[in-house]
Amino acid sequence: MKKRTFKFLTSSIVIFFAGMLMAAFVSPTENMAKQKEWDIPAKYKEMENPYAGDKSLEKVGEMLYMKNCRLCHGNKGEGNGPKAKLMKLEIIPFSDAKFQAHNDGEIYYMAIIGKDEMPNFEKIISDEEDRWAVINYVRTLKIE
Ligand code: HEC
Question: pLDDT > 70: what percent of the chain?
Fold first, then answer.
């Protein structure tokens, strides 16, 4: 093998491994705090809220929220409940404009089906009316 070729090969190998090493250190920390985008199926995006504006569900919604969601999402949905610190992913406040821009069906998917550290609540909140009560309640958690 020519000396030049050998030099070229060794430096390529060194660069390759240095790159691998950097990728290994950089990407997990990048993914850690940032959420991955929610991939919401069309079925949920098109879902209508049959209880939209139903004030009679407010108390049930609040009760279910305090029981099931408060520990992570916080009393007012700020994303600062006592368990939030244990999460690898950031919990965005429900007052966030980007969050509020979601329609009710999309919030249904995020709140009831979940992903990653956001638990699935299909069994725990099995009643359709209860599920929408929680979603309506989450909508009211806009911090001024
Ligand atoms: C064990 C902690 C935990 C509990 C309990 C919990 N959540 Fe979450 N929730 C999370 C985390 C972490 C995320 C961010 C997940 C992601 O982006 O992958 C999240 C995300 C969400 C989102 C999407 C907004 C966002 O931050 O991306 C909604 C809506 C939501 N949760 C609603 C609820 C509701 C409603 C309840 C109760 C029925 C609940 N959550 C209970 C941890 C929790």
Answer: 82
